[in-house]
Specification:
The chain is of the alpha+beta class and about 90 residues long. The protein is about 25% helix and about 15% strand. It has 3 helices and 2 strands. The longest helix has 9 residues. It is elongated and about 55 Å long.
Length: about 90
């Protein structure tokens, strides 16, 4: 904050919610994350949303509308990580 500035920024709960990811339930993920975890392309994940095969909601994040997806509703299995990680967080 700038001392002596003629404005103030007020962060309400609604503003914080919009900046943090919208109204999606806890644990729901973005299209990119869903595609990665399911081993699918992003366009196919969107297709599955539009055809009702994945449970999803649209939320406002900043000024954009984004999908948040419930991976538990997926009819396909989640993919395991392709590469293991060692203790340092580096892929083997």
């Amino acid at each position: 904050m700038t001392p002596g500035a003629p404005w103030k920024i007020l962060l309400t709960d609604e503003v914080r919610r919009k900046l943090s990811g919208g109204d999606a339930p806890e644990g729901w993920v973005s299209v990119s994350e869903a595609a990665r975890r399911l081993g699918l392309s992003k366009s196919y994940v969107v297709y599955m949303i539009k055809t009702g095969r994945l449970e999803a909601v649209q939320v406002s994040v900043r000024k954009q509308r984004c999908w948040r997806i419930n991976l538990d509703s997926a009819t396909c299995k989640q993919q395991t990580e392709m590469f293991g990680r060692n203790d340092n967080g580096v892929e083997d």
